[in-house]
Amino acid sequence: MPHTISVVGPAQASDAELHAAQEVGRLLAAGGHVVVTGGHGGVMEAASRGAAIHDGVVVGILPGLERDANPFVSIALPTGLGEMRNALIIRAADAVICVGTSWGSLSEVSLAMRTRVPVVMLGGWDIPEGPQLARTPDEAVRMAVRLAQRRRQH
C-alpha cells in the first residue's frame, strides 16, 4: 500500500546529501509512494528529481509562489506561509525522511516528533531520544515505509 513520505533536508546541501536524497526519492517512487517536499532546491530538489526519474508523484508545499517550485514537482501547492509551511509538510506525511540537517529541517523534525509522525534521519545530527537513524538511502526508505505502515495500523 503506498504511503505519503515527506523528504526534508537543507537547501544548501553537500554532494553526498544530494546523492542520498535523489536515491531516497527514486526508491520511494519505485515503491509507488508519494513524495512530499518543500518544493525548492537542495535536498528537496534532489529527492524530487529521484522520484521524477520513476514517474513518481512529487508534491511541493511551497512557502511562496507556484513559479518557485523546482522543475521536478508534479503538484505545486503555493501557501504564502513562508517557513510556517513546514507544519503542512509534516502533517501531510505518514513518515518523514530527513537527509542531512539544517535549522529549517530541524524544525520539521521537531514538528514531526511532537505530532508523532515517525522520522528517519539519514546523515545529519544525532538527536537523543529522537528520530531513528539510517545508514543508507535504502535503509531509510525501508524504515520510513515500515513506520508509516505501523502508524496507519494504530
Which descriptors would you attach to this protein?
single chain, 154 residues, alpha/beta, Rossmann fold, seven-stranded parallel sheet, 5 helices, 19% strand, globular
What do you see in this structure?
The structure is a single chain. With 154 residues, the protein is α/β, with parallel strands linked by helices. It has a single domain, classed as Rossmann fold (3-Layer(aba) Sandwich), CATH 3.40.50. It is 40% helix and 19% strand. A seven-stranded parallel sheet has the order 4-3-2-1-5-6-7, with helices on both faces. β2, α2 and β3 form a beta-alpha-beta unit. α1 packs across α5. The chain starts with a strand and ends with a helix. The model has no long low-confidence stretch (mean pLDDT 94).
How would you briefly describe this protein structure?
The chain has one domain (4-153): Rossmann fold (3-Layer(aba) Sandwich). The protein contains five helices and seven strands; from the N terminus they run E-H-E-H-E-E-H-E-H-E-E-H.
- Give the proportion of residues in helices: 40-55%
User: Biggest β-sheet: count, sense, barrel?
Assistant: 7 strands, parallel
The low-confidence runs, each spanning 5 or more residues with pLDDT under 50, are none
- Name the strands of the widest sheet in spatial order: 4-3-2-1-5-6-7
- Give the second-level CATH assignment, the architecture: 3-Layer(aba) Sandwich
Please count the beta strands (DSSP E, at least 2 residues each): 7
Rg result: 13 Å
| Basic shape | globular
Strand content is 15-25%
Count of DSSP-assigned helices: 5
Number of domains: 1
Mean pLDDT: 94
Global structural class? alpha/beta
H-E string: EHEHEEHEHEEH
End-to-end span in angstroms?
15 Å
What CATH first level would be assigned? Alpha Beta
CATH topology heading = Rossmann fold
Oligomer: single chain
